[in-house]
Design a protein that fits this description.
Layout lengths: L9 E6 L6 H19 L4 E3 L8 H13 L4 E6 L5 H10 L4 E6 L14 H14 L11 E2 L1 H21 L2 E7 L13 H5 L3 E6 H10 L6 H12 L9 H18 L5 E5 L5 H6 L4 H9 L4 E2 L4 H14 L3 E8 L3 H7 L11 E6 L12 E4 L1 H4 L8 E7 L3 E10 L5 E10 L9 E6 L3 H10 L6 E5 L4 H10 L7 E3 L15
Parallel strand pairs: 1-2, 1-3, 3-4, 4-5, 6-7, 6-8, 8-9, 13-16, 15-18
Antiparallel strand pairs: 10-11, 10-17, 11-16, 12-13, 14-15, 14-17, 15-16
């Protein structure tokens, strides 16, 4: 990934209630930092040495210290009971994502002067955070010894990266949306609510910029990169020059229009006028930019681009955006899946898009024309899509969405891409999600989600769930695939 993906430096500040031994917090902080660096390395973690926070004055000193050290995320560590006012003020005045974690008692032989009562202190900390309307990440079980707390901090890293990224993100869109794609339309108010900026442009503006890049001296080097990437799959060499011109256009637009924001995602236009005017489809370029850390969604799907960015930051890898597209035929299920994998026919489906998936996430790839678009347009202007079967392995299917009535909603489902040939076209794979049929009906349909879903390559549901909670999605609005026997609220009990 590139500089378009955020990194975090976590400042660890220990706190202590003044009627408890300060040494408890000092020693436990040292043990925590050692445990973290021994297991995960010293990069990205900072131990605040200036003080143990016992008062508001200490809070200001610690706050200034972690800022000077360049920390953009914070861990408030309760080495003992902790001062509920000062520690929550520290979280309130720190601008980045913050986490609270507490020390467990260490020995049955030291429960007099060595007892810290942080288990109790965490309750007061959480209560005071709510009083002050301060958001903080609190692990599922936020009390542990040095090694356990180090693991909790490590799990906080991708959550913190995502929150930092969203607070510094601009989504650049080129519209309007294609006809009959109202499903990708959603109110942008929630973008502002979570700290994301948006710049909406006309595709005519983009076309003008594209024309100005004709003959750009950088084009040959980009063409060479494309040729090396495609290898034997370079079936449309005649279109690479124009695709390279378009890639440079988008990259220059990003650099010239990011403004004060550090990170950018793109919601791009791709049809129907795009092909006839630009002379190609943008799928392959979209795949390349996404692989380089600049997520690009299709069909001006703004919340799709947002979802891709979150997944890329959390997974530290390329993601893709696919249609939850079609069922797997019964004969194909019988011959390729049944008896080989523990899924019913309703658990599997095909995730598809025209050709926007990064080549490294495809088992094989070829540059082709876009078959669906060529049904209504001249074939020669639909060249530029990347086709191939998606690599088998674990995936997370997810999406963050604003509803028509401006409610922030999300879904997450773990699954896998099966090593089954798609026998079809586009960037496509045979996906399996346990209880997908019920999830499809009672989360996706009932929740009013569009056909696009983001795909991260690996299981990242735990981190995504925490990110969505942190940015303000109600837990009641985060859907997931319920196991068999657990009924959805809208599911007919007599089905």
């Amino acid at each position: 990934m590139n500089c378009n993906m955020p990194e975090v430096k976590i400042g660890v500040v220990a706190v202590s209630r003044d009627c408890f031994p300060e040494s408890l917090s000092v020693n436990r902080r040292k043990n925590l930092i050692k445990a973290y660096t021994d297991k995960y390395g010293a990069e990205g973690i900072y131990e605040c040495p200036v003080c143990i926070v016992e008062s508001e004055i200490h809070m200001v000193q610690a706050l200034e210290d972690v800022k000077r050290a360049g920390c953009n995320a914070l861990v408030v560590y309760l080495g003992n009971f902790g001062p509920e006012i000062s520690e929550t003020l520290l979280a309130k005045h720190f601008e980045g994502p913050k986490m609270f974690v507490a020390a467990a008692e260490e020995s049955g032989d030291n429960l007099v002067q060595g007892r810290g009562d942080a288990y109790c202190g965490m309750l007061n900390a959480s209560y005071n955070l709510k009083l002050r309307n301060v958001k903080a990440y609190i692990p599922e079980y936020p009390v542990g010894d040095a090694e356990e707390c180090a693991d909790m901090i490590h799990e906080f890293v991708p959550v913190a990266r995502a929150v930092v990224g969203l607070h510094n993100l601009k989504i650049i869109s080129f519209g309007p949306r294609p006809l009959n794609f109202l499903a990708c339309n959603a109110p942008i108010k929630q973008l502002y609510n979570i700290g994301v900026e948006i710049e909406e442009n006309s595709e005519l503006d983009l076309f003008e910029a594209f024309q100005k890049h004709e003959g750009d001296e950088r084009i040959p080097s980009v063409v060479k990169e494309m040729e090396e990437e495609l290898g034997a799959g370079n079936k449309k060499p005649e279109i690479l020059t124009r695709l390279a011109q378009y890639e440079l256009t988008l990259k220059d637009w990003v650099n010239e229009h990011r403004g004060y924001r550090k990170y950018v995602a793109i919601a791009g236009k791709c049809w129907p006028a795009f092909q006839t005017q630009f002379g190609f489809v943008p799928c392959y370029v979209n795949s390349r930019l996404t692989a380089q850390g600049i997520p690009v969604s299709c069909e001006v799907d703004i919340y799709g681009a947002l979802s891709e960015f979150i997944g890329a930051v959390v997974s530290d890898d390329a993601v893709t955006l696919l249609d939850i597209n079609n069922t797997v035929p019964k004969d194909m299920y019988e011959s390729e899946v049944k008896g080989k994998y523990n899924y019913t026919q309703k658990d599997i489906f095909m995730g598809f898009h025209c050709g926007n998936t990064a080549s490294k996430k495809l088992s094989f790839c070829e540059m082709k024309y876009q078959m669906i678009m060529a049904r209504t347009l001249p074939k020669e202007v639909t060249q530029g899509t990347l086709e191939g079967d998606i690599v088998p392995g674990d995936i997370t299917f997810y999406r963050l969405q604003s509803t028509a009535d401006n409610i922030l909603r999300a879904y997450i489902a773990h699954g896998e891409v099966l090593p089954v040939a798609s026998k079809s076209f586009g960037s496509i794979g045979v996906f399996a999600i346990p209880e997908m049929g019920r999830f499809y009906r009672h989360v996706l349909i009932e929740g009013g989600y569009p056909h696009h879903g983001a795909v991260a390559f690996g299981h990242f549901g735990k981190a995504l769930f925490e990110v969505f909670k942190y940015i303000g999605v109600s837990v009641d609005e985060i859907g997931y695939n319920q196991p068999a026997g657990v009924r959805y609220p809208t599911e007919n009990p007599w089905r």
